[in-house]
Design brief:
The protein has 305 residues and is mainly α. A hairpin with a 2-residue loop joins strand 1 and strand 2. Strands 1-2 form a two-stranded antiparallel ribbon. The protein contains 15 helices and 2 strands. The protein has one domain: Farnesyl Diphosphate Synthase (Orthogonal Bundle), CATH 1.10.600.10. Bound molecules: geranylgeranyl diphosphate (GRG). The site of geranylgeranyl diphosphate has 18 residues, from helix 4, helix 8, helix 9 and helix 10.
Length: 305
Amino acid sequence: MTLSAQPGKGVIGVAEAMAAATAEIDAVLQTLLPEPSGPERRLAEAMRYAVLAPGKRFRPVLALSTAELFSVPRRAALRVAVAVEFAHTYSLVHDDLPCMDDDDMRRGQPSLHKQYDEATAVLAGDALLPLAFEVMAHPETHADAEVRLELVRALAEAAGPRGMVGGQMIDLVVEHKPADIGTITRMQQLKTGALISFACEAGAVLGKAPASARQALKAYARDLGLAFQIVDDLLDVEGTEAATGKKVGKDATLGKATFVALLGPERARTQATMLADQAVAHLDAFGERGAFLRRLARFVVQRSH
Ligand code: GRG
C-alpha cells in the first residue's frame, strides 16, 4: 500500500504508515546489500550491521512519498529510497568514529567501530556511499539514462563539499566556539538538510516532474530539514538513550553549535514548529496528493526519537 493511501490521520497514522514502508524498504535493503562471502566477508557483515539496524528510515520514506506524487513505479522509487539510506548510514558510521563525534551507541546498538573496529568502520562507510551511486546508476532504477545521471549528480552534490561533508567540516571547526544563527543554519542545511533535500527531489526527478514541482519540494525540504535537525538537537537535551538509541547530552559536552544552545529549548521548539508550518505551505500546489507529506512535517516536530 502506498504511504498516501495508508489509513489513519495525524501522528499515529504517520507512525503506522512509516512502519509499513520500513518493512518494504528493509526488504530491498537486504537484497541490495552485499552478502558476506570470501576473504572480504567482514566488510559485508559490517555494512549489514550498520544499515539493517533499526533506523527511522525517514529519508527513504521521503523519497517514496515524493515519488508517489508523480506515480513513479514503486520498484524504481524503492531503489532510490534505499540508495539514500546507504548514503545516510555511511555518514552516521563515519560521524561516530573517534576522530569525529566519538559515539559508542547508534540505533540502539554499539556503533560500528565499537562492534568491529575503526578500520572496518571506515571501510564500511567508504563502501556504502559508492553502493548508493551504483544502485541509482543501474538501468533498473530508470530506463532513461538522463534521469539516472541527474540522480547521481544530485546525490553527489548533497553528499560532497557543498553538502554533508561541507556541513560536517563547519560542525568540527565551530566546536567550542561561539557561532551565530547564520553559521548554525548554514551548517545544518549542509550537514542534515542536503540529503533530506535530495530525498525529496528524487521523487520529482524519477517522475520527470516540472521544474515548479521540483522547486516546491526543494523548498519543503529546506524547512523540513531544519525542523528535523532542531528536534534532533532538542532530543539530545530532553530525550533519553532508550528512546533515541544513542547517547544524549553529547552536544553540550562536545561544545556543539546548535539551535538549542543558541535559542534555548523553548524558542528552538517554537522555531521548529514554525518551520514545519512553512514546509507545509510549500505543498499547496499538490492539493490532496500532498496530504501525507503535510502530516510527515507535523510528525517531525512531535517525534520522540
Ligand atoms: C560525512 C562524516 C560525515 C558526516 C556528514 C550527516 C552527518 C554529517 C553526520 C551524521 C551525524 C548526525 C547526527 C547528523 C545530523 C543529522 C541527523 C539528525 C542524523 C540522524 O538521523 P536520523 O535521526 O537517524 O534519521 P536514524 O538512525 O533514525 O536513521
